[in-house]
Automatic annotation (TrEMBL):
This is Selenocysteine lyase/Cysteine desulfurase. Keywords: Lyase, Pyridoxal phosphate. The lineage of its organism: Bacteria, Bacillati, Bacillota, Negativicutes, Selenomonadales. It comes from the Bacteria. InterPro entries: Aminotrans_V_dom, Aminotrans_V_PyrdxlP_BS, PyrdxlP-dep_Trfase, PyrdxlP-dep_Trfase_major, PyrdxlP-dep_Trfase_small. It comes from Propionispora vibrioides. Residues 32-421 form the Aminotransferase class V domain.
Amino acid sequence: MERKEFNDYVRQLVVGVNERVPLLNGSYSTAINFDNAATTPPFHCVLRKIEEFCPWYSSVHRGTGYKSVTTSDWYEAAREEIKAFVHADEEKDILIYTKSTTEAINVLAHTLSQQDGRTVVLSSEMEHLANDLPWRNAFTTDYVAVDRSGRLVLANLEKKLRQYGGSVKLVAVTGASNVTGYMNPIHQIAAICHQYGAQLLVDGAQLVPHCPVDMKPHSSREHIDFLVFSAHKMYAPFGVGILIGPRKAFHDVSPLCKGGGAVKLVGRQFVDWDDSPYKEEAGTPNVIGVVALVAAIRLMTQLDVREIHDYERELTEYIMTGLSEIPGIRLFGRTRSGEDRVSLFSFQAEGLDHRAFAKMLSYEAGIAVRSGLFCAHPYVENLLGVTEKELNYYHKHQEARVPGLVRVSLGVYNTCREADVFLETVGHIIRHKDHYKQKYEALDSQAGSGNVPFWVKRHVP
């Protein structure tokens, strides 16, 4: 299938792509969503599957009624289908449902902190905070360096593994940066980790939705020990996260979340925890979220995840090339020849605040992007060259405007036409920078006085 035909077909499969949103001038424009790294719209088939499932919806593992048994069977069968999507081991790996990637990493941190032995976790300087903060209190935490462009330095990883002399329990790295779109060589990293007796966690939140992922057999030096990802970033709403790892890692430890559904028997003086994964899934499970994820996985498999990746990469390069030709734009995430990436990158517009620029794109053309530090504060601060002195100032003066970036993140349904609208809008804003700067400073002042313009109000039915 040709790229345009592929995109035209896929676009029909996604909810809300033709919705119109209000602009500052009172008109309406078809929304352009370039904020897919935060969350994606759902596939139509996901909503249809949920509607089809709802008449049979019941609580999981809670009853003997036909609907409850049917729901429970479906919920358990889904584990194997999700595992197969990333080539996890059918017997040796377990899949734990969580509410998000963030919760999945917190569950793993809590689990590993109860085990004796190695006490060090190596994260990296390019991580989302979800793959940084959970490790800080329970372990000695150190960070693998990135270079000036923001790429992980593998030589520094190996140096730190040697430096800690066998004390590293886990290396926790992102599969793809949520700021620059750089893809880490996860299988090469796995081989390095295993050479020094450490395990590897891959944060797949920005990787799994965009390209094929293979955890590889446990016997392989390139095996991914733990993998986490989220449904809401892969066209499946209703909030479910995934944690996959070796069954033995969860044996004989207490769960992070405690309550009903996680136990075999409880007395006043004892608690008999259930086996994993059930003991990690206290409370009533989010079976609708699982239904949504499986429906999305089936469609992504049908579309071919490699085809999705190739299309998104071409569109990303098209936009980045166009932006590079606009004076005053500084790009973060430019790739080298032959280097792979996922479909997101960030940029700065000289002389314009990142928050204001994001508002301009939205209010003038209906284009949604993200601005700020993207929950990857140290990474963005490093990319921008923010000094420790400056950072302490922002810490003490929370009214100060913290620097940041504007992020563009694409989905498989985005088009070249949308890219052209985006590039034309950015170019127009840059050419009339002073006008827009004054205009949005006045709007900020107006909003600060409590006089909120009509177009800021919600236009949702």
